[in-house]
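Dear all,

This email documents one entry for the complex benchmark we are building for the journal club exercise. For each entry we list the sequence lines for every component of the assembly. Then comes the predicted three-dimensional structure of the complex as a token string, followed by one or two observations. Please use this as the template for your own entries, and keep the labels exactly as they appear.
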Amino acid sequence: MSNLISLPIKTASGVFLAHYSEAGLAALDFPKSHSTRIITPKVTAAIRAWYTTTTRAVKAVVAGKAATELPPLDLSSGTSFQQRVWEELLWIPAGETRSYSEIAKAISKPKAVRAVGGACGTNPVPLLIPCHRVLAANGKIGGFSGGLEWKRRLLTTEGTAVRS
DNA sequence: ATCGTCATATGAA
DNA sequence: TTCATATGACGAT
């Protein structure tokens, strides 16, 4: 079950690593120090299609544009609450931001603001699930699992001003 | 304006 | 149950 297939995604900002389960894209890693030597033995036709879509989407987001199409996401690793939050993040258009409390209201749990932050932190698919477009209520940047530098860069690229 | 403190939901140990 | 959070609101400085 936990046998994920990993494929490298080359972008102008580095090589991301996409992990696919049988249900879809299960995780996406930011470029690290890992070299691009990933062995990919048996890639099904479905995964090849997902990979194409994923690559296109990732490149779009890195370039500050909206992803036109997303691959199926395998969010089974998260709790139902987390999945609810992640799903909500999906609706945030490129170039716009929401606050943690806005997200909380959107899922009918206006007081679960901190929990929303926690869900963002465990988001397995950054960029495609735009957790970087979630700021604190006062416009502060908050935090980011993949590194604050990334969050800043992505927002700047999308034309969003962030307050220090 | 900045800082400390508390409230409140959720998840992990 | 206890602890930690990528928050938010409020009051004291």
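Observations: The first helix of chain A runs from residue 45 to 62. The radius of gyration of chain A is 16 Å.
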